[in-house]
Design a protein that fits this description.
Largest sheet: 7 strands, mixed
Strand order of the largest sheet: 3-2-1-4-5-7-6
Number of domains: 1
Number of strands: 7
Order of helices and strands: HHEHEHEEHEHHEE
Length: 198
Amino acid sequence: MRHDDWDRKYAAQELLWSAEPNRFVAEELAALAPGRAVDLACGEGRNAIWLARHGWRVTAVDFSEVALGKGRAIAERHGVTVDWVRADLLDDVALPPEQDLVVIAYLQLPADQLATVLAAAASALAPGGTLFVVGHDLSNLTDGVGGPQSPEVLYTPDAVVAGLPGLDVVRAERVTRPVDTPDGVRHAIDTLVRATAP
């Protein structure tokens, strides 16, 4: 989708996503010592704001100005500072270097485009920095619920790890999260990868 398509989606309702951080972001990253972080494809900023509230100096990047505007307003209500940057991650964006953490949450792209973003994210890490990736898994199509229905934009742990040469992979697996549906609680399946720079 183009940025103006996302602008329309974000403008159509108060919050497109939850105001709370992604559950895996909160679970996996809560114990990290705060430093410099960048949240790629941040949307309305729920993960960036959570990081800022936990002492991180955060740059949040997205190509939807509407989403960034919502993020700015929410951050202001929480009394935290986030550096909001409008950019398309596929346009050779120079990410701020020496990051202690890079978060990529639910940026569903075809494999070649995802590889470009993963390479940029890995190169932005400081020594010892953490790259955290979570997104809809390919197996969600048949065994889960929700998410994109196009296989070419879905993740697998192996595919994400293959895009991170030179990083030390700490965790790479499929994880599930509960989703409320009209038929009761079902489980979505995500890929989760956590890696560190040597």
